Amino acid sequence: MITDKLNAEFWVISDPHLIADSMHDNGQAFSRMQKTSQGKDLYYQETVLSSFMKMAQEKKPAAIIVTGDITFNGERVSAERFRDIFRPLKDTKLLILPGNHDIYDGWSREFRGKKQFYAGQISPMFWKAIFDKSYGHCESEDRSSLAYSVQFNPQYFLLMLDSNYYGSEETTEAPHTRGGIGKKQLKWIEEQLRWAEQNHLRPIVFMHHNLYAHNPVVNHGYVLDNAHDLRKLCARYNVKLIFSGHIHAQNILGPQGTTPTTEIVTSSFCSNDQGYG
Q1: 10-265: what fold?
Q2: Any residues with CB less than 8 A from the CB of 185 and at least 6 apart, and which?
């Protein structure tokens, strides 16, 4: 259990897309990448995340939850730097889940002068090793993915899902935008929801991809490919709340059809105004 306080607070950020300062020299290649990065701030993320961490040191939320895309493009050094930025936290637990840019991303690069160079990618094993403290709080882990569950306090049970497609080895291919929940993970999710119900805990789900279409025009690749499977579980176990990211835009949708779930999408922390929930 993260905390025994009933009125405890957690903060949510999504899509920080950190590229560690050590991965570039502010040269021409990096400048070109910044200009084509769809509004992401690549220069000051270490500074902004450090400031956010210091604010958490002062206000002491019970947890900070990050709904994926920790790294710019899956650089192992960037994930390690993200962990180190938040290492000074004593009263706040850091709970991490991966996004589509984090595991075996073939775009992983470092930038020197006019050139780009391949950078070390993140395997599932490295992910768990880097963020071992997050997994150290878990009640259960899904063996087929990077999903895990955490009891937040005496009332709430958190499911940290892995909604991403990635291979089993390093690659040179672009990361998948689309996402879905595998059959084995769905079975594990149902087991966790059943356990929460039996123990009178209210479940809250966190994932990178979206359960609902938050934009009627641009939603392909953002909504889970098999959202209907997760929606069925949400209806069966009366899941009231999901947090997600991926679309880089803040939005909230209430229950849809027979699904009783409200979904809160948190905007990208690497874009102005560094939104968090």
Answers
A1: Purple Acid Phosphatase; chain A, domain 2 (3.60.21)
A2: 142, 144, 145, 147, 161, 162
Asked if pLDDT for residue 63 goes beyond 90, the answer is yes
Residue 38 is predicted with a pLDDT of 82
CA 250 to CA 40: how far, in whole Å? Answer: 15
Q: Over the stretch 231-277, which tens digit does the pLDDT of each residue have?
A: 999 999 999 999 999 999 999 999 999 999 999 999 999 998 888 99
Predicted model pTM: 0.97
Question: Domain residue spans in the chain?
Answer: 10-265
160's enclosing H/E stretch is strand 156-160
End-to-end CA distance of the chain: 21
Q: State how far the Cα of 245 lies from the Cα of 269, in Å rounded to an integer.
A: 10
C-alpha torsion sign, points 168, 15, 61, 234 = negative
